[in-house]
Amino acid sequence: MTKNPTAVRSRPSSGGRPKPPRRLPSLVRILAGKWKGRRLDVPAGARPTSGRAREALFDILQAAIPGSRVLDLFAGSGAVGIEALSRGAARAVFVEKEAGELNANLARLGAAEGEALVVAEDAGQAAASLARRGERFDLVFADPPYALGETALSRSVIGLLAAGGRLVVQTDSGDPLPTLTGVTPAGRRAYGRNVFWFFEAP
C-alpha cells in the first residue's frame, strides 16, 4: 500500500508519557449589554444552553429585564443570570451547589456585591432560606436535573415568584410539559435540543 506523503507521525512526549488533554476554551459568551462578549467558564461536564437559545430567550424576555429581580436555579456557569444582569436586571441570585466557576465568572466581570448573590446549596435548601428572608423574584429560570422531579421543583419556586412573575423551565427536546402547581402554563419555545417552558404566577 502506498504511504500518504502528507501524513504526520505523532511524536511521543518527553519521558514516553502522553500529555494530558488540553482543556478547550469555553464558548459561552455574554451576548448583550454592559458585559457583551465577555467569556464565561463552564463547569466540567455541564451542557450549557446554546448561544442561539439564550439569545432567543432574552429576545422574548427583554422588555421585562431592566430593573428586575432574577433567580437562576441550578445556575452552572451563571450564564442566564449574568446575561440578565448585563442587560439591566437590578439583582440576580444564583443557586449552584458547586459554585467554583460561577464565583470566578462574577469576580472576573467585577459584579457588584449588591447585584449578585451566590447561594452554594441545593435548590430545595436555598429556596427555603430565600423564602424565609422574604425574597421574591420577577423572573425565575430553572434548568433542573431530570432526577429532581417536578414536585420538588414546584416546592422550590412556588413561594419565590412575585405577583405576576414568570418562571422559565428548560428541558431537553422530547420531554413533556412539566406539571407544576401554583403557576399557569404560558407557552413553549424550542431551539434545537433546548426547550423553554414559560409559566406565570397569579
Lay out the secondary structure.
Blueprint: H1 51-61, E1 69-73, H2 79-86, E2 91-95, H3 100-109, E3 116-119, H4 123-132, E4 137-142, H5 150-157, E5 161-172, E6 184-191, E7 194-200
Parallel strand pairs: 1-2, 1-4, 2-3, 4-5
Antiparallel strand pairs: 5-7, 6-7
Helix pairs in contact: 4-5
Summarize this structure briefly.
With 202 residues, this protein is α/β, with parallel strands linked by helices.
Based on the model shown, name its key terms.
single chain, 5 helices, Rossmann fold, globular, alpha/beta, 202 residues, 7-stranded mixed β-sheet
Structure description:
Helix content is 23%, strand content 23%. The protein has 202 residues and is an alpha/beta fold. It has one domain (47-200): 3-Layer(aba) Sandwich (Rossmann fold). The longest helix has 11 residues, at 51-61.
Helical content stands at 10-25%
How many domain regions? Answer: 1
Q: Shape from CA axes?
A: globular
The strand line-up of the biggest sheet is: 3-2-1-4-5-7-6
